[in-house]
Every structure is written in C-alpha cells, then in structure tokens.
Amino acid sequence: MVVLWVASAIGLLVVAPLVVLLASYVIRPALESARYADDILEHGVGIAAGVAPVPALMITRKRVGEVTANAVDYVGALRRLVAAGTPAPDPRHYETQRK
Q: How far is residue 72 CA from its own chain's centroid?
C-alpha cells in the first residue's frame, strides 16, 4: 500500500508539473501562431479592399487609348486644314448658335 502512495505522490509532484510545463511549451507557440493568423487575415482583407478597383483601371486604360486616338485624329485634321489654307471659323458664328 505504501508503494501505491509513493507512486501517486511521485505522479502528482513530478509527472503532473512536468506535463504542465511541456504543454506550456506547445500551447504558447500555438497561441502566438493564432495571433499571427489573425493579423494576416486582417491585413489580407485590407489588401483585397485596396486592389478591388484594379479592374476599373483596365477600363480607364482602354478609354484613355480611345481618347488619345480621337485626339490624334483631331490634331491631324486640324493640320490638314491649316496646310490647305482653310480660313479659321468665325467665333461669332458659334455665339449665335448657343443663344
């Protein structure tokens, strides 16, 4: 009976604290990893919100190309008019049309 009490005492005084100590070595890094995962999730959502307008930039790029092409055509037409010696339009003509 004494052997049982000694084994129980050793188990309670040596093995149990050892198990708690070893568990703390595992639990502490696991909790730190959970905090890192939460931080990654938070910043990942922020990045996703930051890059959400990128598809609109593709549309803007297309429209800028169209406007540039139209502006080049317009300047080319003006150069042809100037080279042909066509007189400039009278600005008063536009004022009467606006009224």
A: 35
